[in-house]
Design goal:
Layout: H1 7-20, E1 25-31, H2 37-50, E2 55-58, H3 69-80, H4 85-97, E3 103-106, H5 109-115, H6 117-126, E4 132-133, H7 143-149, E5 159-160, H8 166-175, E6 180-183, H9 200-210, E7 215-218, H10 224-233, E8 236-239, H11 241-247, H12 252-267
Parallel strand pairs: 1-2, 1-8, 2-3, 3-4, 5-6, 6-7, 7-8
Amino acid sequence: MIGTSNGVERVIAAFAAAKSAGRGALVPYLCAGDPDAATTAALLDTLGPAGSDVIELGIPYGDPLADGPTVAAAAQRALDSGTTLEQVLALAAAANARGAPPIVAFTYFNPIVQFGLERFADALVEAGMCGALVPDVPLEETAALQAAFEPRGLALPLFIAPTTPPGRAVAIARASRGFTYVVSRLGVTSARREPDFSWIAERVGALRAASPEPLAIGFGISTREHVRRACAIADGAIVGSALVDAYAGTSGDEAVRRVRAFIEDLRQGTTREP
């Protein structure tokens, strides 16, 4: 019997709550197990009170195609500390039980296949996770994931790049569940390369007319000003490498202190002009 989740609804509701408060949603990324499980647990408990609306929790993987050097290094540290998929699920389950914001896994297709698609979807539901982002699966190959996720109410946000043709971008947005990830620029994730906002406003306008799913901008978002510009255009801002950089080399209470300060600062950029 398939277990069900309200994952899609929880993610959409988080974006809607931010909108009703006159701001965009803040979506930070953490790599589970970096530098250790105890620090990840503490950071998951910190992100919500600091101002996060949805959390992307990375499952460490040795061949992270979309990840820049910062996130790839975090994944390697997590793997070196012995982090497993089962441990990531346990961290998410515990954080969810303590009232964390909606948590969406960030992973790649190969680990899911190795674990088993149906088994992975069931495990997300059991852990109270809301779905997964899988950046290396193109639109034409999402059918198997959709077949596993949709009956369980799990979100499956898809990615739109600057080079995605307009018609294809509309098709991706219509197939996305939970939100659509609008990639701000070409290349891999990195806080050291500026996001490119020049093309996004027009693209977001076209996507809004095609799909009701929230739109969040990611890749290169690293400052309060970046968040402000992203939230002025779209429904939310995704911050990954810059957050990992904020606590890299620390653990425990020091990592929590740095992450809290960083997220609280970014949160100030989510408020939209009246």
